[in-house]
Amino acid sequence: YISKGSIAEIETQLGLCVRFHYVEKDAIRDSMELYMEVGKMINSLVYKLKYEFDKLQRTKGDERNAIIGC
Predict the structure, then answer these.
(1) Residue 36 pLDDT
(2) What are the pLDDT digits (tens) for 10-65?
(3) Which of 41, 46, 50, 58 has its CA 20 to 30 A from that of 22?
(4) Helices in 1-70 by DSSP H: which ranges?
(5) Tally of CB atoms within 10 A around 61
(6) Are 1 and 40 spatial neighbours (Cβ–Cβ below 8 Å)?
(7) Measured between alpha carbons, how far is residue 68 from residues 54, 59, 60 in Å?
(8) Which has the closest alpha carbon to 5: 37, 42, 33?
(9) Distance between CA atoms of residues 56 and 19, nearest Å
(10) Could you give the CA distance from residue 61 to residue 65 in angstroms, rounded to a whole number?
(11) What letter would DSSP give residue 5?
(12) Packing angle, helices 29-68 and 2-19, rounded to 10
């Protein structure tokens, strides 16, 4: 889940920029919206991949059971 960590790092860096007055919050509003949108896409992708992997594993288990007669 490296990508999730990267999104969290971006959130932290943007927050620090505002906290230490490098930029105003309004100046990074678009960036904040983008990282949140990308974060949602990453979460959706991870969920989908986990679902597909689990489904594949169940299918393989069913095939094994059919072969050995369970």
Answers:
(1) 93
(2) 999 999 999 999 999 999 999 999 999 999 999 999 999 999 999 888 887 766 66
(3) 41
(4) 2-19, 29-68
(5) 11
(6) no
(7) 21, 15, 13
(8) 42
(9) 46
(10) 6
(11) H
(12) 160
* Residue where the block lists tokens 């509003």: 29
Cα–Cα nearest to 16, from 25, 7, 6: 25
Give pLDDT, residue 58.
85
Dihedral angle over CA of 13, 19, 25, 28, nearest 10: -20
Using CA atoms, how far apart are residues 70 and 68, in angstroms rounded to an integer? 6
Tell me the three state secondary structure of residue 21: coil
Residue 43, token pair as written in the block: 């979460």
Residue 42's identity, in one-letter code, is I
